[in-house]
Amino acid sequence: MTSSTKEKSLSNNEEGVNPLTPQTGTPLSGVTVVEHGKGVAASYAGRVLAMMGATVIKLERPREGDPLRYEPPLLPTKHANSAIHAYLNVNKASVTLDVATGAGRELLVELLRRATIFIDDTHPQSRADWRIAPANICAELPDLIYLSVLPFGAFGPYADYRATEINVFHSSGEGYLLPNGLALEIFPNRPPIKAYGHLGEFQGGTSAALAAAAALLALPAAGGQTVDVSVQDANVALSAMTLQRYGDGVLETRPTRSFTYGGVLECADGHVQILLLEQRQWNLMVKMLNAPEWTRAPGMEDPMTRGERGKLINEHLRAWAKTRTVEEVVRLARDAEVPLGKYFTPPDIIASEHERARGFIGEIALDNGTVVSMPTFPFRLSESPVPTLRNVPGRPGEHNAGVIGTMLGHTQDELDLWYSLRVI
Amino acid sequence: MKPLDGVRICDFTLHAAGPYGTHYLSMLGAQCIKIESRARLDIHRRPHPVYGRLEPAEFDQGNGDKYAIELNLRKPKGVELAKKLVSVSDIATENFRPGVIRKLGLSYDVLKQLKPSLVMASVSAAGQIGPEWSDPGYAPIFAAVGGLGYLTGYDDGPPVELRNMMDNVTGMTMACAVLVALYKARKTGIGEHVDVAAREVASSFMGDAMVAASAGIPVQRKGNEMPYASPHGVYPCVGHDTWISVSVSTQAQWEALARSLDAAHLMGDERFRDAAQRWHNRKALDEVIATLTVRHDRNVLTRQLQAAGVAAFASFSARDLAQDEHLRIRETVMDMTGPQGKTRAVTNAPWRFEKTPARMERWMPGLGEHNEYVFGEILGLAKSEIARLVDEEVIW
Looking at residue A336, which CATH number applies to its domain? Predict the structure, then answer.
């Protein structure tokens, strides 16, 4: 295959949208981001910016591309594309570039001259080896925002540590406290767990996107700068309550963190979550149950003494829920204004009328025409268009011609040379 | 210089996600004016029996750095003063139940007439629009409705309730949305109403599961597993409730782990010969690894494994967070001393800006601590006028 046929289309989908075309009317239209990341945190930061209208150019390794393309579950696409890769890289352009080569680094700097933000999650040692550390890059590009996204940040005793999701999640204080409630009651002796998937890294990515937005606002006064984002730091900040309680003299553990009553209830066909923090909510729940005798027993009225009877309360609540369907329990709680919600499955959310009405769920075609559903974005802006799903990069380097050729002005001969040298 | 120097927030939020979101903006340098009243106190100023607390909290992380005023929104004059404050602010935030802000006469439609470039954020469980807009929610509920709770847990157990972290990350998402909107407002002069739905924040962290499900690939709870990585889990170490997380994805890492655990013989075990075999026998492998790690000090083992190229780290409790050298050096965790003279560990801003450092500077304010400054200096009311409004229970 010649490079010209390789670059026939700027989009993965034959009828897709060119991600290099600015999205007018969006908050970050006109902001160009170069993302050199292979982890979830950096990629999610790029996704946030892309969904807000920035032009995001994702750099992948030549040939095999982003490692996340291969993380199961894999999608039935022409080119390697996992579910997580499709989700994280929607609305981005894909360029292959080996920044470890001299020519690759030169092209990177050339690209960064046209960018506002550079997102990088390269291990500090490799950054130094490849001369792409902030000290190397920012000296040449003083107006650039260099967003460093690393598991433990760019300095400190753990800066060089290797970590995957389970390590950073458990380094933050939250993993130590999972599970609690019903799961802990059933399996009191099992090791703690992490949350589903890549939660810690997604949260790190959100923190990085927030920092990028702050650096953008500071740009006119401060110029470019490096922002050191640590996924651990982001998650520790989110665990502030457990540190706060420690300061109050309470060291939270999985058993002590469990609610004394309420929590996960098993229904006939699924699970719901009930939470009764205030006296008013307890009263509403009693009313919903038609005030059975056990709710009127001594000690049940006062919130403090009631907590001591948590086991008994849960026995009754669980017996009540077990004989009813989720739908019935949710309906009763909604009518009674009791705080309770269903444990939704992914298909439930995809089908949710509420989420459809809000534009939270969208559809996008993959490179083989398969249409998948995914979240757009978890907030709405009144004066900007609802974020739309425009494209999912198919083949690594699908937008090489558009970026390195058209945007940077290099000739086809140069591109062919770099292809042959595996620079791109 | 901080990134948000000169930015002012009129903050009506009182509980969890809202105050935590504006806390991020405060640490970034925004002047955040927190609006309470004696009838409408922030949750940290009230008892919290669920936490066994029968009096106000001594400290609340989400309210550090803020300016606290009393303003009674049940009085028409209180609403008028709130409008005046909004008109000299860049951002307004609220997390009432949907519909309440409109009843108060402080909806975005009203406020944008006063300040067209205003960025206003509303945070709620299900968002401001949609058939289920009025559903209430606390973190474990919107984590459940958002799907993340369903997918978290042991593969043979029930779903797991997720807690305060979900509130706080909703706040973080709100802060991010507000800054993106502020960036646009500065360019165009036109503000935004930001509608943040906490359940969608939870769902957005499992977008991969929804992509898979829509492609016909079921996704279920799976404890600590990650596909085709084994061993991959949390294993016991020396000491009560002391754990290390270990993640092995290559043959070299597997061999390094076996050697570090003084168990080189495992490399010759057919069940664990290669990645495919280890994945197939992962439950048995987890049991074997647990019998080995339990003889090791978690910190020594972490250093040993990291030196050998294996991703490993302790499972940190709050005590660990408070005492960890790395977090102290990065000032992610630092000490603050309150007005009563007691020092405690708190979390600081989670980013290190080279030129515009963000930081938590001050302990949380007392109720109405900044009445004089805000009503006098910012809104220009005379002392006699302030006194009269206090008597009328407007500043109250």
Answer: 3.30.1540.10
